[in-house]
């Protein structure tokens, strides 16, 4: 700030130095003017000028120093009060700008919430004809057509479900209900929902759940498992998906292993990034890149850690590490 202050006052400093040099020059060429007293006066003037700059420095830089450290674009409370006309003009302009930005941000948030509510309402409305469509598909006699139709129905259902949870994820904290939850009904419900797809791809499940219960939210855990199972089924063919649980050091681990195509090592650090699909099958237009991202977001809110190990051509293992009971104190406030 000292350097900026001196650069700001550079023209005044140069003017002062030029005036002092002019006085010394006149005294030097005019024999009637004693040079030494003039030199003494110039020296005293120089000292006074230095003292003036030092005294004025904190007062003239206080406002701009607070403005430089200001990191909240909407709160001017941290900015020092103006002490000069120019500082007052700056403060007034900033105040008008922040008020305008506040109004624009408020209107934007209202519009965003309205769009979110409209989309959620639309998704709920679509679910009714979608349920009716499933009942109609189940009544078909042609098993081949029935299987194909059910697969397409499932794709639509999963995309709608993903969109619904994407809109809900921002206020997931308001939707959590932590309780002791049985893993088996959640897992078998998700497997059953993928039945038609699994039959089409000749995929089976090997489920072993020695650790039968976890402390979590039923609905959001179901969503996480749904995303992992959907990925496992999508990238596997004619193989089993192994689901097993265990307890280690008082912590429940849930392991979901498939024997599909696997994940390229260079893709592993990015699979939970929003919108990331794959560098291997980058032309796959059906992939949204949102499933694992949303699963990770939901897992973070449930204090669940997701680890993934994968080898191309051999398959992928997702492991969910559930929190211990005392780790939920910060989440539940109990």
TrEMBL record:
Domain Histidine kinase as annotated: residue spans: 121-326
InterPro entries: BphY/WalK/GraS-like (IPR050351), HATPase_C_sf (IPR036890), HATPase_dom (IPR003594), His_kinase_dom (IPR005467), HisK_dim/P_dom (IPR003661), Sig_transdc_His_kin-like_C (IPR004358)
The name this protein goes by in its record: histidine kinase
SUPFAM superfamilies: ATPase domain of HSP90 chaperone/DNA topoisomerase II/histidine kinase
Membrane-crossing residue ranges in chain numbering: 12-29, 35-55
Main EC class the enzyme belongs to: transferase
Reaction(s) catalysed by this chain's protein: ATP + protein L-histidine = ADP + protein N-phospho-L-histidine
E.C. designation(s): 2.7.13.3
Location(s) in or outside the cell: Cell membrane
Keywords (A to Z) from UniProt: ATP-binding, Cell membrane, Kinase, Membrane, Nucleotide-binding, Phosphoprotein, Transferase, Transmembrane, Transmembrane helix, Two-component regulatory system
Membrane topology: Multi-pass membrane protein
SMART domains with a match to the protein in the record: HATPase_c
Gene3D superfamilies listed in its UniProt record: Histidine kinase-like ATPase, C-terminal domain (3.30.565.10)
